[in-house]
Amino acid sequence: MLPVYFTISEAPEHKQPGHVERPERIAAIQAALQSSGLLDNLNQVHSTIPGEIRDAVIDSVHAYRDALLSRGAAAPGPYIGDTLAIADFDDPDGQTFLTSASLPLALQAVSLTLSTLSQVVLSSCPGVCFLRPPGHHATTAGPMGYCLFNNVAAAARYVQKHLSLPKVMILDFDVHHGNGTCEIFDTDPSVLVLDVHEESAVYLEYGSGMDDAGRGEGGGFTINVPLPRGAGHASVLKVWDDIVAPAAERFRPDLILVSAGFDAHEDDPFQLLCYRTETYGELASRLCALATRLCEGRILFCLEGGYNTEALAASVTAVCSALLRRNEAPESPLLSVKDEGGIDEPAELADQVSAVIARVRQIHGLG
């Protein structure tokens, strides 16, 4: 097996009773990796980035770090059954919250992400970060969607400013639109953001449609692929064949970052898309091959959503297995949807997905 760098933290003191974004998510991942034997083959990163560098990177993507730290100092202590809601106050899926431990843990998550990224760049080997809280909803102006700081956005700026890699591609396959990441890089042509999400799983005030393609100099460098409810394995492979791979080949990134949300799984409580466990393994294999071809193998996966702990753990295990065995031929070839002859899903759904793909390809000149 080839080297893969990883970091993991449950952040147990960042917890709201009954909330879906909970420490047990990470515990399930660690237990599954341990029982599968994969954990012993991953190279754990324990080091952190100096605080002044971390804070400067955060400030390059967020305008609220100091204000949020002040609010966090007044938050309730962990484990007392109470938290401070700071966003999504009326969201039935859960508030964005703080305990007094939340912000130190969120800062640690950014630091560990950047340290793991440094190892990825130094070694030209993949990396994976299993950290809480997640990040892809956090915008320039504030936290939201369970996210305090945008780990992937910070990673993109860090690699540009400190590791001399100017062009970054971000793929977000969480079921929810990564509004924060898209907004942060909306006008930036040095970062290509591809966001594949379920069409209704969005913050309405942020552009998530096919025509939301970036602004100004960043026009054309945001690619949104809103899939209809129920789209699954074959649909996302078709998106890979017709949109993700050709867009990446045209952009030629120096690094690939992945906002790896696993809540598009068919067993996730959100039940919006129908990816399977093996979907994530196939995506990881294809991403690794793409990174090898385009950017010397530099790729980092960062955990976002995924709230059925069993499905999350199995899907992460599939991803890690694919990364560790990236030099091995798969037991059965990973066929593209073109090879398989189309989208093997209900005809009406397949037609809807094909229409989305055709429109996105037209907007972005992908053929």
Helix/strand/pairing category: alpha/beta
Number of strands: 10
The overall average pLDDT, rounded, is 94
Taking the alpha carbons of the first and last residues, their distance comes to: 37 Å
Can you describe this structure?
The chain has an eight-stranded parallel beta sheet, sandwiched between helices. A two-stranded antiparallel ribbon has the order 3-4. Helix 2 crosses helix 4 (102-123). With 367 residues, the chain is α/β, with parallel strands linked by helices. It is globular and about 55 Å long. The protein starts with a strand and ends with a helix. The protein has helices spanning 24-36, 51-61, 65-73, 102-123, 151-162, 179-184, 233-251, 277-295, 309-324, 337-340, 347-363; strands spanning 5-8, 43-44, 84-87, 96-98, 127-130, 168-172, 191-198, 222-227, 255-260, 299-303. Helices cover 40% and strands 13% of the residues. It has eleven helices and ten strands.
